[in-house]
């Protein structure tokens, strides 16, 4: 199910990148994210959906676009409404952001790690049960 939602999100993101419909949003927050692979620049803004309700979006932008943006700036964003995990949500991106998008990769990695951990726990429990249930000779400590 997670892979299907990731594929749906990827398709929606590609459709969003090719869209020419834009709305305006004001940047409200900026954060620097430092990871082993480098430094990322994250901006938060509110974008209206088609009913006028505002949705908060956080987006990581490329270095070139980061040099142009400041908190409080009004930017053009593309938006799209999608249904993910049974919930309608709004996805959007700032015009000119060239950073590649990898949807739900972290969640997929966490799911794989959890599955491996679960199998390891099952095997540990099985071998522990097997060791306890099999008869074995034990020397009597008190002869």
Describe, in short, the structure shown:
It contains three helices and five strands. The protein has two domains: 2-100, OB fold (Dihydrolipoamide Acetyltransferase, E2P), CATH 2.40.50; 104-135. With 143 residues, the chain is an alpha+beta fold.
Write a structural description.
This protein is an alpha+beta fold. It folds into two domains: 2-100, OB fold (Dihydrolipoamide Acetyltransferase, E2P) (Beta Barrel), CATH 2.40.50; 104-135. Helices cover 36% and strands 36% of the residues. The chain has three helices and five strands. The protein has a five-stranded antiparallel sheet with strand order 3-2-1-4-5. β4 and β5 form a beta hairpin. The longest helix is centred in the C-terminal third of the chain and has 29 residues, at 105-133. The chain is elongated. The mean pLDDT is 81.
Strand/helix succession: HEEEHEEH
Termini separation: 61 Å
Query: Which regions are unreliable across 5 or more consecutive residues at pLDDT < 50?
Result: none
- The chain-level structural class is alpha+beta
CATH class of the largest domain: Mainly Beta
Count of helical stretches: 3
What is the 3D shape? elongated
Write the layout of secondary structure elements.
Layout (H helix, E strand, L loop, with lengths): L1 H17 L3 E14 L2 E11 L5 E8 L1 H6 L5 E11 L2 E8 L10 H29 L10
